[in-house]
Amino acid sequence: MDFNVYWLLKKEDSLNLKYCLENFSPKKFHVRNINGLKPTIVDESVEGKTLTFKKKKNSLLFLIDQKECYNLKTHEKPFSLRYTLNEKLKEDTELTNADYENGDYLEITFNGKIEVEPSEFERAPGIPFYRIKKS
């Protein structure tokens, strides 16, 4: 499956997450362990449910219908957006992050495409970090 990855600015993580949850319909909340040490941690459809988060000192606590479902601790890397094309030829956007200390990988799938634009900051020479276009 082809996809593009756009790394967002770390300092805007909470604002980006809030914007996405308020302006796009989340479809799925999925957390798995990429080290293979634990089974899938959360794999839940959130269509028709309320997905929210609380910012803690060093983590983001996710809630589905006000019930705690996952605490993203020590996320060192910024969130990224991935665009994939599914079999129905409708674009969805995945907002992703990882807790490398625990080996957990978080994906939130949203209906539709969340647009991005390059920021003035670079990850490497000629490779920008991105910002979500807010309308």
The counted number of beta strands is 11
Q: Mean pLDDT, rounded to whole units? A: 88
Examine the coordinates and then state which fold CATH places here, giving the name of the CATH topology.
Protein Yojf, Chain: A
Question: SSE order, as H and E?
Answer: EHEEEEEEEEEE
Q: How many helices?
A: 1
What is the level-2 CATH architecture name? Distorted Sandwich
Distance between the termini: 29 Å
Q: Which blocks of ≥5 consecutive residues have pLDDT under 50?
A: none
Give the helix proportion (percent range): under 10%
Question: What is the CATH level 1 assignment?
Answer: Mainly Beta
Name the strands of the widest sheet in spatial order: 1-7-8-9-2-3
The figure for the number of domains is 1
Radius of gyration from CA coordinates: 15 Å
Profile the largest sheet: 6 strands, antiparallel
Overall SS class: mainly beta
How would the global form be characterised? globular
Describe the structure.
This protein is mainly β. The protein has one domain: Protein Yojf, Chain: A. It contains 1 helix and 11 strands. It has one helix at residues 13-23, and strands spanning 3-7, 26-33, 42-45, 51-55, 59-64, 67-73, 80-85, 91-99, 104-111, 116-124, 127-132. It has a 6-stranded antiparallel sheet, covered by helices on one side. A 3-stranded antiparallel sheet has the order 4-5-6, with helices on one face. The radius of gyration is 15 Å and the shape is globular. The N and C termini lie far apart (29 Å). The model has no long low-confidence stretch (mean pLDDT 88).
